[in-house]
Amino acid sequence: MIDYRPELIQKLTHLWDAGREGLFKKSPGLFNSFREEAFSTFLSLGLPDKKNEAYKYTDLDKFFSYDYRGYYVPSTADYTQAERFKCEVEDLDVWNIVLMNGFYPHSDQGLMMLPGGFWAGSMTAAAKQFPGLIQRHYNKYVTNDKDGLVHLNTALASDGLFIYAPKGTTISKPLQIVNLVHSDRDIFVQDRNLIVVEEGADLTLLVCDHALSPQHFLTNTVTEVYVGQNARFNIIRVQNQHNDAGKITQTFIHQERDSYASSNNITLHGGLVRNATYHTLAGENAETHSYGLFLSDKSQHTANYVFVDHSAPHCNSTQLFKGVLDDDATGAFNGRILVRPLAQGTNAYQANNNILMTPEAKMSTKPQLEIFADDVKCSHGATVGQLDEEALFYLRSRGIDEREARLMMMFGFAHEVIQNIHIEALRERIDTLVMQRLRGELSRCASCAIKCN
Description:
Elements: H1 6-26, H2 29-45, H3 61-64, E1 69-70, H4 76-84, E2 95-100, E3 112-114, E4 118-122, H5 123-129, H6 131-137, H7 148-156, E5 161-165, E6 175-181, E7 187-197, E8 202-211, E9 217-227, E10 232-240, E11 245-255, E12 260-269, E13 272-281, E14 287-296, E15 301-310, E16 316-325, E17 330-339, E18 346-356, E19 362-371, E20 376-385, H8 389-397, H9 402-418, H10 424-439
Parallel strand pairs: 1-7, 2-6, 5-7, 6-8, 7-9, 8-10, 9-11, 10-12, 11-13, 12-14, 13-15, 14-16, 15-17, 16-18, 17-19, 18-20
Antiparallel strand pairs: 3-4, 4-5
């Protein structure tokens, strides 16, 4: 154990010791086969700290210091709570799945088949119904061996969501996943998800993160995505939790030739939010787009980490991330593009732009390019500053008062990311929520980011 915070490691070791027997008893053998080694690796790596370049501007200590209850087996009451929950956007036509503390409520009923030939359900059920498929893909696309949190998830994850799009299938409408956290005690949720989109298939996934009770929550999520040849995959994540909720997501997207993938993280609220997305372009002519927008105030911290690995020739990638920080909020962006020697004909673009509303707000940004091929077009850039005073003056000269002019400019700044959401009803709802957030009307997370009842 090399971690300089032994008390935090001791708490996590206690969770492992307390839940180990239940984990091995309830989980399929394939998942269990990785657990012991994964926890040993976690102990050798420790929790990421500021010595880790990817966490240089993100302090995890506060959210790991609480006395969390290990949450391994859900109760009937938890499932009942999930069934009562509705998450709706007017005119949004989706297939809906609700998860409670990382668990799918109907895991004992096997996977469900959606129109179009898609399968969805719990990881536990998937291991029984599609054992060969799970063995072929589980734990195969995690490319970050230096992050102890990934190994901690492999060791402690109880369950999660499995989505399977067989070859040539097209879902008739997007699939919406509502991730709820709820408990009368502080809990640490570990969920592990696997999404397989086979050759020629097309899947759009909408994920909404929401907290139902005011306890301290910490969620450590790892999602692996396989996008086959000539397949399309889109994921939109909307995060709106309270200030005592911490959310850490690590998404690994592996693409074969002629495939398309996009990810878009919209963070409206949360005490600690860190989204890491890893894109591996493993086949020729693959294309990927990674977007992010966060709005933070008070003492919130939001971090985005993106790594695009151009491993094959003639691939395209785009990164566009924006942040608006108010009060004493802090933020971080770390974007990396790696162009390997065989990846000739690469076209890669990266931009990170941020607005600071107060002198106390702080933003750290680090765009990176590593190029080992000579036939490439790559660019990157980052800005941190205040609103354009000349543009503000122009609006005020047209009879718009200063407050409204500032709101209009901030909304326009944010909309550049929002416009990449291709679900019209959702895009309009997010536009409304962003404006409410900028006006200070969502100072507490009283509702989900998507209209909740």
